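EI: anyone free to look at a 157-residue chain?
SC: sure, send it
EI:
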Amino acid sequence: MNTPIKRLDRDSSIFCLFLSVFIGIESYRLDLGRLSNPGPGFMPFCGAVLLAFFSLVVLIPAIKRETGAKQIGEGFTPQIRWNKFILPLIALFGYALSMERLGLSLTTLFFTAFLLKVIEPQKWVVVIFGSILATAGVYLLFKVFLRVPLPSGIFGI
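SC: here you go
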């Protein structure tokens, strides 16, 4: 018996698989370049490969479920936790709005701490070290390696 969830998983993953093939072909036509000197089609092509991979990750179990026995928890509709959706969305807008004033490092530190403490409550040790580690990673990636001119904020970092 095909439940609506199974059909949606199957149909959406097939759609995404065809979309990834189309994006892959078109980005290849744009010129991929080389790894040391990527062309304009390189990033869309990488995105298409990832989309195809994740489409297959969803499609294969969906097809197996159609032919298999009844799954554990089938028919169970999870309760939607709106705060897990709304609060990160509000925090993301706050992140974007405060970036210019506070700078990349401080904004990322507060944003990550908020996510780790409020959205998925963690111990304070995890919150502090996780926020510092994430901020250092973002700083190294964008400011040091990619040399993206992002706002420095009130402390100049």
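EI: Residues 83-145 form one domain.
SC: 👍
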